[in-house]
Amino acid sequence: MQRLLSLDALRGVAVIFMMEQHLGVWLWEPEHLNRSAIAQAPGYMAINGLGGLAAPTFITLAGVGCSLFIATRLDPRVPRSPGRPLDIILVRRGLTLLGFGYLLNYLTPSWFSAGSWFVLHMMGFAIATAPLWRRLPGPALLAAEGVIFAAAVAVQSWLATPRFLDNARMRDLELPGGALRLALAEGQFPILPWLALFLVGLVVGRWLLAEHHQRVGALCRACLLAGVALVALDVAAKELPAFAFLRQAPWWRVVRVTTSFFPAGPGIVLLLQAGVLLMLAVALHIERSRELDPRGWLVCLGRASLTLLLVHVVLFREISRPLGAWQAFDRYTSLAILTTWIGLCVLLCRAWQRIGYRYGAEWVLRRLGG
Questions:
Q1: What is the pLDDT of residue 1?
Q2: Are the beta carbons of 43 and 7 closer than 8 angstroms?
Q3: What is the DSSP letter of 242?
Q4: How many angstroms separate the CA atoms of 64 and 201, rounded?
Q5: N or C: which end of the chain has fewer CB within 10 A?
């Protein structure tokens, strides 16, 4: 099938969300330390909150892209030269992406420890284990989401994971389990529950191949209803005596829904998943209604999203510190820097597109991943 430029454009949206969220807090120094950032700049922080959709979008699209890649490799009508078996390619690509994650750990010691588990690690693990998941039917993959949510609640309860994880806790290797604990349940984007979004992405990719686009919208509505139901139970647990048992362990981990997803519970993951599927449905509808430009600025950003993720984290999280730019500006200056940076990324990526994004992280991923 033709490359779906709508998926590239959606990656471009996700990388913008990620950069604006990160730069918004890495550059801005709040004026009043005794007032919350939201109280000081509600509009600024509302825009910043869109960044919460970035990582879920990347993980879901990794699953979609994996399904499309598998179908292309298995299609006998697609000519190709002899190469490595499909499962070997998936494992190599996943391990390469996992390697990029650990490289980012090394390059950003102010944020990550050697064993931190970020979105790149999550996607790398998911792709490396795709040989297991690709053989399962769609209904089993969708059902696995509920199993993963239950496992996440059980493991968080077993580890006594606190209600909120700060950055110090999410990089702590001294706790029992060390790096494995972070990867499984207490990192930024641990396997439990975020693997569920990758598995759903695998199913969505199969739907796109079969041109069952309407199912994306139906799944979006189902996730939204399930998430809202958990929000309602969370409110009932606080207000109605009959539901007071939901405030006790482990039930509060099931129904609790907060804007912070460190650690993530089923409710917030379902709501974020609904948001990602809604954006995906809109992007696919736009591509079906008109032809997209391969040199469109969102498409170009999406094709270089891995490189942009690595570069902006190292530049604005780590290098900004010795330069005196870490949380050194008011919100208006921060917004100006952010806008200028995104504009520069668009110009550079459009120029880079002419040589196929050669020597970037995506190019390395294809070479090392086979």
A1: 56
A2: no
A3: G
A4: 4
A5: N
pLDDT at residue 75 in the model? 74
Check if the beta carbon of residue 143 is closer than 8 Å to that of residue 350. no
Specify whether the CB–CB gap between 269 and 53 falls below 8 A.
no
> What is the C-alpha separation between 104 and 306, in angstroms, rounded?
11
Quote the tokens at residue 362. 């995506």
* Cα distance between residue 230 and residue 203, in whole Å: 24
Q: What are phi and psi of 329, to 5 degrees?
A: -130, 160
Phi, psi of 28 (to 5 degrees): -85, 135
**Number of DSSP helices (H) and strands (E) in the chain, helices first:** 18, 0
What pLDDT was estimated at residue 36? 73
Report field, pTM of the whole predicted structure over 0.70: yes
- Token pair 């799944």 is found at 219
> What is the per-residue pLDDT for 189?
97
**Rounded to 5 degrees, what are φ and ψ at 3?**
-60, 130
Tokens of 75: 């299609």
Please give the Cα distance from 227 to 234 (Å, whole number). 11
> Contact at 8 Å (CB) between 92 and 130?
no
State how far the Cα of 119 lies from the Cα of 188, in Å rounded to an integer: 7
- For 130, the token pair is 């795709």
Closest CA to 199 of 254, 151, 255, 135: 135
